[in-house]
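Now for a concrete sample entry.
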Amino acid sequence: MLKTIVFPCSLALAATLSAQQPCENLTKLALPHTTITSAALVEGTTAIPPHCDVKATARPTSDSEINFELWLPPSGWNGKYQQVGNGGWAGSIPLVSFAEPLKRGFAVAGTDDGHTAPGAGWAIGHPEKLIDFGYRAVHETALQSRAIVQAFYGREPTRSYFVGCSDGGREALMEAQRFADDFDGIVAGAPAYNWSHLFAGFLWNERALLDDPKATIPAAKLPAIQKAVLGQCDALDGVKDGVIEDPRACQFDPKVLVCKGADSDDCLTAPQAAALAKIYAGPRNPRTGAQIVEGFPPGVEGEQGTWSYWIIPTANRTPAQFIFANTYFGQAVYEDPKWDFRSSNFDEDVLYADKKAGVILSSNSPDLRSFRARGGKLIQYHGWGDAAIPATSSIQYYEEVKDFMTKFPDGRSSSAQPLDNFYLLFMVPGMGHCAGGNGPNTFGNRPGAPIDPDHDVVAALEQWVEKGVAPKQLIGTGKASGDSNATLTRPLCAYPQTAHYNGSGDINLAANFTCK
C-alpha cells in the first residue's frame, strides 16, 4: 500500500528544495530491471510547462522492452503523481496526454505498453509481450516512475492517480483489479474491459455487413437512420434536444426504414435493415444463446466520426472495428496473419480467444474488494454515443461489481457496503468515444476555465480521495442542438440516476434539470 507522508507546509517546501537533485543525475539512478536512458530539463512553451523529461526502459523478462516516459515539474510540484493510459493497441507513449497534468503540477508518466509496432503482430511468438500489453507495462511504469519521483524530490508522492479512456479505461480497471495498491484514485473512461468479447462484437459487425454484399450499409444512409431514431426517441426524456438521455428506452426497429419503392439514401433495403438490427442487438452464442457482448445503442449513427469511422466500410477505407477484429483474432489469438474472418464462428472461436488471450487482456473481474479496502476511489464514465465500445457494457460491468460486492463484502463489515462509497459510474448522453459528439460531452480540461470538481472529473476524483467528498453529479458542457454558437450545460448523474427536465426554463441550462 502507498504510504502517505504529511508535512507541515513550510517543512514540506524546505524538504523538497533541499532534497531535489539535478535532473541529469537521474540517469545514475539504479532501479530493478530498468535503465534510465536520458534525463534532461526541457524549456517550457505556451502549451507545455518546463519539466525534467525522463526516458526509461524496463525489462522485467528477457522478451520485455517496456518504454516509459516521466515528466517532472522542477518547481510547483503539487506533491502528486498521475499516470495516463493508452488507446487501441498502444505502441507509443501517450505524450499528448501529459501536458494538462503537468500544468496542474503533477509528475506525469505513461508507457508504450511494451512494443512500438501497430496492430498486434508483435504478439506472434511473444507471449511475454502480450502480458506486458495486458497489464505488466502499466504496473511496471507505476512502480519505477514513483521511485524516480522519490529520487528527484526526496519524498514519495502523497497521492497517485491513473486516468485513461478506451484501452486506457481497460488499463484503469486492470489496475484496480490486479494492483490495488498502485493508485489512490482511478478514472476509467469508456473502458474496453471485456477486450476479448468486445473484439468478438467487432467481428460480428464485420460479418453482418460483409457476409452478404447486399447488406452493406452505405455511409450516405447514416443520417437518415439517425433522423428516424431521433424522430421516435428524442423526446422520451421530456426535452427535444437532439440527444437521447438513455437510449435503452428507445425501441427502434430498423424495419420501419425499409424502402417502399426504389432504393435511396433515405431508406434501407431489407438486407441492410437486417444488418442494422444485428449491430443494435450484438452477438450471441449460436449454441447457448448467451449474449457475448452488448450491441451499439441507436441515436448517433450519422454523427461525424462515429459509425462512419468505426463501423461502416467504404470503398476507400476499412472501419476501425474491422481492423481491431482481424488483428485480435488473427495475430493475438491465432497468431496467423492469414487468418480469414469469414471462417470464424461465435462459439468455439470466442471460447478459444477467451482462454488464449482474454485471460491476459480482459479486465472484467468484478472483485474490487482489495481496492476498496485500501481506500481507493474509482470514477467510470461512458458516452452513450460511443461507436467503439458499447455504452451498455459499462452498465453491465457496474452491475456485475455490485452483485459481487454485495455477495462478498471486503471483510471490514458483516454486511454489504454501498458501492458508491468507492465506485461511481457516469453515463454521458450523446458523447462519442472518449470525447466529441452531441450533448454535454466536456467535463474536464475546459480551456480558460477554472478547474473545479463540479466540471472536471479529475478534480472531482482528487476531492473524493483527499477530502472524502464524493461527486453526486458532474456538469457537462457542449454545443446546443441546432445552434453552433449556443452552449449547453447538463448534469451528468451518478448511475442509475438520469437527468430530468424540471418542466420550465432554458433546456440548455443544467440548473433546470434534476438527477432522479
About this structure: The chain is about 30% helix and 15% strand. The mean pLDDT is 93. The chain has three domains: 1-157, 168-193+363-474, 197-360. The first strand starts at residue 34 and ends at 42.
